[in-house]
Write a structure and sequence with these properties.
Length: 230
C-alpha cells in the first residue's frame, strides 16, 4: 500500500477535509467502534470546564466536539481551517469561526481554556500551533490535546498497527466520501510522537506542567497543560 505524503501544504489539508465533511461523523464512529463518543466526553471532563468560561475548540471540524464541550455551560467557539467541515456542522448551535491554527483570528488572552482533538497532527507546524493556542489563552488557562497516540500494551499495539495499515483504509472506502484522506490519517498517526515526546513538545512551546491520561490502552491520550502566569 502506498504511503501518504505527510508533508502537505496547509491548503491541501483543508481541501482534503472539505471533501470528507459530509460523512465525517459517521466515518469516525465506525472507525473507532463507537469510542469517539466516549473520548469526547472524557476530553470535556479532563478540561474541567466551568459555566461562563470561554473555550476555544480548535480543529473542531463539524463541531460535534464543541457541542459536547458546551454541555459544561461554558461558551464554546468552534474553529477550523476547513470551511467544508464547519459547513457540514451548520445545524449545530455553537459559534463557528474559520481560522488557521498557526495564525488564530483571536486576540491575546481571549480564552479560559483551549482544546484540540485529533487535529494537532494536521497543523503544518504543530509547534507554532501550540504557541498560538497559548497566545490566545489567559495566563493560568488550560489546554487539553486529545490525539491518537502509542498503545501501552505491546500485543495490543501490534494489532492496532495492523488495523491502521489494512483494515482502516478498507472501512474508510466503504463509508467515507474521500477514503484517501484516511490513508493520510493512518500514516500521520504512525508518524506521531509518543505520549512522553508530545508532553515535552507542549512544555517547550508555551505551556507548562504537561501530563497525560491514556484512553483505550493508549490508542488516544489526553495531554493537559497550563499557560504560565508570567
Amino acid at each position: 500500500m502506498a504511503k501518504a505524503d505527510l508533508d502537505k501544504d496547509p491548503f491541501d489539508v483543508a481541501s482534503m477535509f472539505d471533501d470528507v465533511g459530509k460523512n465525517y461523523d459517521l466515518t469516525n464512529t465506525v472507525l473507532s467502534f463507537g469510542q469517539d463518543r466516549v473520548w469526547r466526553k472524557r476530553t470535556r471532563q479532563r478540561l474541567d470546564l466551568k459555566p461562563g468560561e470561554k473555550v476555544l475548540d480548535l480543529a473542531a471540524g463539524t463541531a460535534v466536539s464543541t457541542v459536547e464541550l458546551a454541555k459544561s455551560g461554558a461558551f464554546c467557539v468552534a474553529c477550523d481551517f476547513s470551511q467544508g467541515m464547519l459547513a457540514a456542522g451548520k445545524d449545530r448551535d455553537v459559534s463557528k469561526v474559520v481560522g488557521d491554527g498557526m495564525q488564530l483570528p483571536f486576540a491575546d488572552n481571549s480564552f479560559d481554556a483551549v482544546t484540540i482533538s485529533y487535529g494537532l497532527r494536521n497543523i503544518h507546524d504543530f509547534r507554532a500551533g501550540l504557541k498560538e493556542m497559548a497566545r490566545v489563552t489567559k495566563p493560568g488557562g488550560r489546554l487539553t490535546v486529545a490525539e491518537f497516540s502509542t498503545p501501552v500494551i505491546p500485543v495490543f499495539g501490534t494489532v492496532y498497527k495492523e488495523y491502521l495499515m489494512s483494515l482502516l483504509p478498507q472501512v474508510a472506502r466503504a463509508v467515507s466520501s474521500n477514503p484517501e484522506a484516511y490513508i493520510y490519517l493512518a500514516d500521520s498517526i504512525r508518524a506521531w510522537p509518543s505520549q512522553a515526546e508530545l508532553a515535552r513538545e507542549i512544555n517547550q512551546n508555551g505551556w507548562s506542567d504537561c501530563g497525560w491520561q491514556n484512553l483505550t490502552f493508549g490508542i488516544v491520550a489526553l495531554h493537559s497543560a497550563i499557560k504560565p502566569e508570567n
